[in-house]
Amino acid sequence: MDLCTAITAAREDCGLSQRALAERLDVPRLKITRLEAGVGSVELLLQVMPLVSLRLSKVAKGQTIVQQLKTARRKRGWSVPQCALKTDLDPRTIEAVEAGGGSIASLIKMLEVVAPNAMRQPVTRAYWDYDRSKSSEADSRFTPIEFLNEIVGAFGEIALDPCSHAAAPIQAKRKIILPEDGLEACWQTDGLVWINPPFSHLAPWLERANEAWRNKEVSKMIFLLPASRLDLRAYFDLAACNAITLVLRERLRFVREDSTSPSYRAPFALTLVVWGYSDDEIGNFMTRVPSIKIPMRNVDTTRRSG
């Protein structure tokens, strides 16, 4: 397995550019470029892998790649000096890699010998296939009712769900369901608008939410957005200037359309983008659901309710 290729593929699968990934880690973009070329530190690799949901299979058990390598070496019955001989590395280098240090080049060399059959572990993602010509109905993921109850408890009853589904457990005064197009429909309402969009079709829904706020169609609105997509222009340049963002500490367990099937734990962190909030509402929600608040970039005092 080519680890460098796997890093690049995982990053691209998350929709991240090298620059966006570098900004999240607060490192120069060149470090990401070099890492994907096999040059850099194991320390940086350990920071990158969870951000791009990269894990390896056919190595050994372990929370990180270095823990997996250490376990794999021990399962082979190799001491550090024996492993050093087989990999043509210094024993101190082996120890450094297994401790989370050293270079990625040394780690790759060790991986090729200790776990030659290693491969990238597929990641099952929660998403909606928005292509209406396909069986999108069979791949829907619904917000768990327990979480919706916390939303209602903090922000009030949901007046509109413009991106809904007939089988969704959400209780809203108005639900826009296909074949009616929520992107084209009017969102005019005085109550809370809740948007759990197709994750494969995020940008148009976020742009529509920005438009609804700008045109004063809505007075309070919450948008469920994967943390990995905070680099979207519609978020960074528009939504972030008029809404605060709450990063959820725990990952949601989505409900499948087939209610008899087990719930589905999101493989990535999620955020709530909130327009028209009051400080009391935000405080109430954060006591109910552990989360971190990211303030808006520019406060629009003419539209904020609190």
What letter string, H or E per element, gives the SSE order?
A: HHHHEHHHHEEHEEEHEHEEEEHE
Strand order of the largest sheet: 5-4-6-7-11-8-12
Distance between the termini: 54 Å
Summed over residues and divided by their number, the pLDDT gives a mean of 86
Number of helical regions:
12
CATH architecture classification name of the largest domain: 3-Layer(aba) Sandwich
Number of strands: 12
Backbone CA Rg: 23 Å
Low-confidence stretches: 124-139, 299-306
Strand content: 15-25%
**Structural class given helices, strands, pairing?**
alpha/beta
CATH C-level label of the largest domain: Alpha Beta
State the share of residues found in helices, binned by percent. 25-40%
Cα shape:
elongated
Assembly level: single chain
Count of distinct structural domains = 2
Q: Can you describe this structure?
A:
39% of the residues lie in helices and 15% in strands. The protein is of the alpha/beta class. The protein has two domains: 3-120, 434 Repressor (Amino-terminal Domain) (Orthogonal Bundle); 136-294, 3-Layer(aba) Sandwich (Rossmann fold). Helix 10 links the parallel strand 6 (192-195) and strand 7. The longest helix is centred in the last third of the chain and has 13 residues, at 202-214. It is elongated, with a radius of gyration of 23 Å. GO terms for molecular function: DNA binding; site-specific DNA-methyltransferase (adenine-specific) activity. Residues 7-38 form the HTH cro/C1-type domain. InterPro entries: Cro/C1-type_HTH, Dam_MeTrfase, Lambda_DNA-bd_dom_sf. This is HTH cro/C1-type domain-containing protein.
